[in-house]
Amino acid sequence: MLKKIFLLCALTLAMTSPSSWARLGESTEEADARYGTPLFTETVPNSSWTLKYYLKNVYMIILTFGSDGKVHGISYSSPNLKNPVFAAALREKDGKAIAEVLKTVCRDLTYDEVNYFLKANSGGNTWDELLAGAVWRLPDSTIASYDSYTNQLSIYKKDLSDFISLEKEGNLSGL
Asked: Which residue of 21, 94, 128, 156 has the fewest CB atoms within a 10 Å radius of its CB?
């Protein structure tokens, strides 16, 4: 019995080791090899960014690829896969609908899950915690944030976070 428990624990750790999760800087081929075929892919309008949506185990992983074909951003969440609205958005392959639904159907990521994903994307560096449990930064200015409203962890390389900031500034123009 103890041997079975040990084997089950070892198998669980092997399936969920940081090496099984995409990392910043990986290619589309590496991500596809890791996760399989994405549920769907979409291009961010007026940009060179491409989003690929994957489901792995209980996680929705959204990877943002730059024109270089490398991962520049990763978002992790754990949606209620049985939610009919979420299921419909997946069937329709509608990124905007999925983003809206994810705001309401995801459970909180645990402290251990957040730290696990941060470590997997640290490149061996140490995250500087800027806001307890919510915002972190690496020496290369990669930013991670945990949104407790949507229960989503997002990690962005500097170029992608700069693009997002410029988009927000543009939306605020003239106000």
From this structure: 128
In SS3 terms, 56-123 reads as: ECCEEEEEEECCCCEEEEEEEECECCCCHHHHHHHHHCCHHHHHHHHHHHECCCCHHHHHHHHHHCCC
- Would you state the structure tokens that stand for residue 77, as one six-digit string? 């969440």
Indicate whether this model's pTM tops 0.85: no
Number of residues written out for the chain = 175
**Burial bucket for residue 60 (CB in 10 Å: 0-12, 13-18, 19+):** buried
Which residue is listed with tokens 């609205």?
85
Give the pLDDT confidence of 83-105 residue by residue, as tens digits. 888 888 888 887 778 877 887 88
Pairing between β-strand 71-77 and β-strand 128-131 as defined by DSSP bridges: unpaired
User: Tokens 């500087």 — which residue?
Assistant: 128
Contact 71, 25 (CB under 8 A): yes
| d(C-alpha 72, C-alpha 86), whole Å | 25
Point out the least confidently predicted range of 13-27, 31-45, 84-98.
13-27
